[in-house]
Amino acid sequence: MNISTLRIRVLILLMALTALLVACGGNDEPEAVEPTAVPPTAEPVAEEPTAEPAKPTAEPVAAEPTAEPAASGSAATLEEVKSAVIQIEAQGTFVDPEFGTQYNAAGRGSGFIIDPSGIAVTNNHVVTGAALIKVWVGGEDEPRNAKILGVSECSDLAIIDIDGGDFTYLEWYKDEISVGQDVYAAGFPLGDPEYTLTRGIVSKAATGGESDWSSVDNVIMHDATINPGNSGGALVTPDGKVLAINYAGNSDTNQYFSITYKEALPVIEKLLAGEDYTSIGVNGRAVLNQENGLSGIWVSSVKSGSPAAQAGVVGGDIVTSIEGLILATDGTMADYCDILRSHNYDDVLKIEVLRYATEEVLEGQLNGDKLEQKFSFAEELEEDVADTNGNTTATNNEYVSVTDDSGALQMSVPSSWGQIDGSAWVSDSGDVLGVSLRAAPNLDDFLSSWSTPGVIFNASSDLGTNTADILDLIEYSDSCTYDSRNEYSDELYTGQYDVWKECGDTGTTGLVLVVTPADDSFIALVMVQIVSDADLDALDTILSSFQVIVE
């Protein structure tokens, strides 16, 4: 039975990805405190914890009066903060890379009320994608229902509306945050129904907030202990004012991170209006496997009705690119979020997805066309190449980017195709036709026989733009069997390609592609020899990466 190179490569990468995500908790980057909607690599948090909660580094502190009377209904002391802090349980179906689909999973986080009507703040990763949200206010015995008003996956913020009214709420701190300032972390860690308050100081008033699940500019570092379950809880001053929102921590180094009020308030204003902001509606995190080059945004769950949901993104997908830009190449959400900040929520954006469940590469649009399987030359030619050569073992190629001598041509080729020639495109009579780039394991063997794989990439502005005329000039009937001529298009080029089969004694397949850009400023010719099944992956990579760089 023949197995496509693309499918094998995807399977290998995903197996490596699983191992990577299982181990990701041990890296040096700040860890998500409670990735409830991105299920952790452990059983979902139960309502009653199976172990005693970790003790805070400092004993809960006594209430301290504020210097001025508090506004009506707002917390005025540390003791009163408890009445405005909430525990959140998000229930739903999430996809975990280790355990697969988890039905009716429940994870817990924290939050706090900012308006007496029941408007509350928490983290995006606590609630997005959940079917049901339960909230316990100030340690109440019975939960209340809540609904999501707006989310931002890049700022890791969400606004929810709790059933009921006349709640105690927290006011925002309004002064500058300084190093050494006393702070207190309020919340419900480890799924424990008991409220905790821990004390510390601000150790950095400004630090980097890029992570694998958010992209935040204004973050502080402090040492008030927070644990899984504290996500979305308030970091308050001695008089109960919110100066930041807890979202990450590294217990090994006693370093904890919170989103400052300056970062949060402009986002919250948009979310209060019922808008999602810097969001496509997913609960996800950046993944990167250096060894295999796989990167993207792992999707644990999707918000119904969001651009991601309308495009057909589902839990277990990996969003690998938006608008042609490969995502998470540095292991963070930075590029992903910068793209969203550069566009409006309802803009049409091209998206590419790797689907874990079916091992498919899909293309579509946010706010546009639904996802469908991306065309693959490897898939189209797989049966012919494998049947002819009897080789169904794919090579997991590593790729390098190569350019011609002029710097005008660029493409990615297998690193094993180590012989590169970037000299000009010259006719048989010695006339210079344009630029050229050739790559193969052995160029002499590639150019003189059908037994060695390789590629020739030529471009010229002097040969006209009729793709059929160029294809008609390339004739291999003395060595190959002509198969078909087909239309071709991608985001940069349109044209045609011919397929030649059973070439030479090795049964090699040859593909000849001729394309032009939208402005018809030049014509490009790409010729690839596919000797074995292992070269099919190289074919797709070459044809998705070749480009003419026009100054």
Tell me what the structure shows.
This protein has 551 residues and is an alpha+beta fold. It has three domains: 7-15 and 278-373, Roll (Pdz3 Domain), CATH 2.30.42; 29-60 and 74-272, Thrombin, subunit H (Beta Barrel); 377-548, Protein Transport Mog1p, Chain A (3-Layer(aba) Sandwich), CATH 3.40.1000. 16% of the residues lie in helices and 39% in strands. The strands form five sheets. Strands 23, 24, 25, 26, 27, 28, 29 and 30 form an eight-stranded antiparallel sheet that branches. Helix 7 (377-389) packs antiparallel against helix 10. The model is unreliable at 1-72 and 386-395 (pLDDT under 50).
Question: What are the key terms here?
Answer:
Pdz3 Domain, Thrombin, subunit H, Protein Transport Mog1p, Chain A, seven-stranded antiparallel β-sheet, 10 helices, 16% helix, 39% strand, elongated
- Number of helices, counting only DSSP H or I runs of 4 residues or more: 10
Terminus-to-terminus distance: 48 Å
- Fraction of helical residues: 10-25%
Count of β-strands:
31
- Name the overall outline: elongated
Let me know the average pLDDT: 83
- Beta content comes to 35-45%
User: What are the segments in which pLDDT stays under 50 over at least 5 consecutive residues?
Assistant: 1-72, 386-395
Outline of the structure:
The protein is of the alpha+beta class and 551 residues long. The protein is built from 10 helices and 31 strands.
